């Protein structure tokens, strides 16, 4: 599949781009600065087929992942609404703030970044996913097992199944249906807890759902 990543030069976008390319997908890393995107794509050349382009070009891919900082989320999606019409758009943006006490979730008028994306993109099918996966683990090619679960949220069964299948690019992870898009706020907010855990215990934590022994862990092809 040809996957575009808006904000592909940031930690999460870059890490996901690496893993998607390693799994055999063609990846278009998008950025406000195409030259910066090209530089990062060159750094990921060992992963597979990765190109660096402007965000507008990345939006032309078959499936598009949104990995931009929340402060630029609404403006970017508004500018690309026509290009993203008819596509599955995977939103992994976590609206977080930081102060002297650490990370905390931001209040989003629409309820969550994923719901905000769906409001802005009425012609697209928005799915929330990849919120709680460590960017550090994703972008480290020496890491061959990324344990944990990826909760996939949305309204369209086919789109959810497509994204759950995409989780197979993360070796060792499971893609699980996490509920309708209105539940994305809890998944996005949980990232603040994981950051706090990581800082306290010097690790790269994720989440794992118990009680599902028949759901196989994903493995890269």
UniProtKB/TrEMBL annotation:
Residue ranges of every copy of the Pyrroline-5-carboxylate reductase catalytic N-terminal domain listed in the record: 2-95
NADP listed as a keyword: no
Tagged with keyword Oxidoreductase: yes
Annotated GO MF terms: coenzyme F420 binding; cupric reductase (NADH) activity; ferric-chelate reductase (NADPH) activity; NADP binding; oxidoreductase activity, acting on NAD(P)H
Gene Ontology biological-process entries: copper ion import; NADPH regeneration
Keywords: Oxidoreductase
One protein family per Pfam: F420_oxidored
Cellular-component GO terms for this entry: plasma membrane
NCBIfam families: npdG
Name of the protein in question: Pyrroline-5-carboxylate reductase catalytic N-terminal domain-containing protein
Source species of the chain: Microlunatus antarcticus
